[in-house]
Design goal:
Number of domains: 1
Largest sheet: 2 strands, antiparallel
Order of helices and strands: EHHEHHH
Number of strands: 2
Radius of gyration: 14 Å
Distance between the termini: 23 Å
Structural class: mainly alpha
Strand content: under 5%
CATH topology: Four Helix Bundle (Hemerythrin (Met), subunit A)
Length: about 130
């Protein structure tokens, strides 16, 4: 459920900082050795950046399906390509399966999609600096 809230620049900054810390840890880790954890961390960082963008705009998304709705909101509001939106939804699904079912990600998934992930992170960071 999307609700209007007071824009909160401080919370947005905190979320961006947490995303940056997660990404820094990823840079210092052998990501191919731990592909499932890597996917969770990448998704977590991307989610924090999307949430920072939303809260900076005075939008809060909560309740059942909030992550899915946040991805759709950011994609629509900020012109993310449909392919990027679908990829983020796939990452969300994999992250849930890892967390709740013990699903394992193959290191090839990370290898094949790392550029796409970094591109999305860069785009979100750019949007946060502009807004």
């Amino acid at each position: 459920m999307i609700i209007k809230v007071t824009a909160d620049k401080e919370k947005a900054e905190s979320l961006m900082k947490m995303a940056d810390i997660t990404l820094e840890r990823l840079r210092e880790t052998d990501i191919m050795k731990y592909p499932s954890n890597t996917l969770i961390d990448y998704y977590d960082a991307i989610h924090k950046l999307m949430e920072a963008l939303a809260v900076k705009e005075g939008v809060k998304i909560k309740g059942e399906g909030a992550h899915q709705e946040l991805i759709d909101y950011i994609a629509k509001k900020h012109g993310l390509a449909e392919q990027a939106r679908q990829f983020l939804q796939q990452m969300r699904d994999y992250r849930n399966r890892i967390s709740y079912e013990g699903f394992m990600i193959n290191k090839n998934y990370i290898k094949l999609n790392q550029d796409k992930i970094n591109e999305i992170i860069g785009l979100l960071c750019k949007k946060l600096k502009i807004s």
